[in-house]
Amino acid sequence: MSEKTIPILPCRTLQPVLDFYTALGFEVTFQQRSPNPYAVVQRGGIQLHFFGMKHYEPTESFSTCLVRTDDVDGLYETFRARLKAAYGRVPNRGLPRIGPLKDTSHGVRQFLMTDPGGNCLRVGQQTSDDQHHRPAPKETFARALHHASLLADSKEDLAGAAKTIDRVLRLRDERPTPVQLLRLLVLRADVATRAGDTRTARSTIAAATAVHLTPQERESVRDDLELLAQLPG
After folding, report:
1. Is there a contact between 20 and 115 (Cβ–Cβ < 8 Å)?
2. Is the bond preceding residue 35 a cis peptide, omega within 30 degrees?
3. Tell me: the pLDDT tens digits for 33-54?
4. For residue 233, is pLDDT > 90?
5. From start to end of the chain, where are the E strands?
6. Global confidence as pTM
7. CA angle 187-20-188, nearest 5°?
8. How far apart are CA 171 and CA 168, in angstroms?
9. Which of 164, 184, 185, 213 could be disulfide-bonded to 148 (CB atoms 3.0-4.6 Å)?
10. pLDDT for 17
């Protein structure tokens, strides 16, 4: 006996969605226009089905799909490179978009990618057998980073993430370590970029770039530094 689950995701019209996935290296293996719009794309072991809905609103979509991989770093770099080749830039806001690659608090290294139909693909690699969310840290700045990351990436609440970071960076009786400061500033710059707040993004990128780190500290925040380098200055 063998079973396989394949998501069937909505979109307003098929072609923009199919163009997006073919740009990523997927193959359109099936397409029909009647009796209802329907199409299938596949890349390796990833197979996605789509159906068209005339009155569907992609910006209000909650549809999502989990993609498990054993090489999330490689897939992330491949998708970013293909999107840049197709769009002339790596889209990080609006539709479509691709988010940063991060280690989550529930034992998965992942990135989120949303197609023109508003469907969010959570592409991840398991890094722990424990899939429960870790408790929020008690230390002030680690806790703020934990909650801001969840707001920005899991809930896509950019305003909430920005508020959390801005509040903790205004504290005067406590100061973050250089690593904590770098990570908070990079996340704040990323949030501002995704929200279209160019002024805040630029000033925060400059502040993050100015943070002095030892070689050992730089290695511990390699993902954050890579994200910082990807943000438009």
Report:
1. yes
2. yes
3. 999 999 999 999 999 999 999 9
4. no
5. 8-11, 27-32, 38-43, 46-52, 64-68, 97-98, 102-103, 108-114, 120-126
6. 0.86
7. 5
8. 6
9. 164
10. 98
